[in-house]
Amino acid sequence: MTTDLSPWPHRPVEVGLVGAGPWARAMHARVLAAGPETRLAAVWARRTDAAREAAAPYAAHVAADFDELLDHCEAVAFAVPPAVQAELAPLAAKAGKAVLLEKPLGPDLDSARRVADAVSEAGVVSQFVLTKRYHPATRSFLEAARAAQVTGARSCYLHGAFLGGEMATGWRLEHGALLDLGPHLIDLLNTAVGPIAAIRATGDPRRWIELTCEHANGAVSQATLSGSVNVPRAITRVELFGAGQPLMYDTAEINHEDCWPVLRREFADAVRTGTSAELDARYGLNLQALLDGVVLG
Question: Which residues of 70-86 are buried (b: 16+ CB within 10 A; e: fewer)?
Answer without folding.
Answer: bebbebbbbbbbbebbb
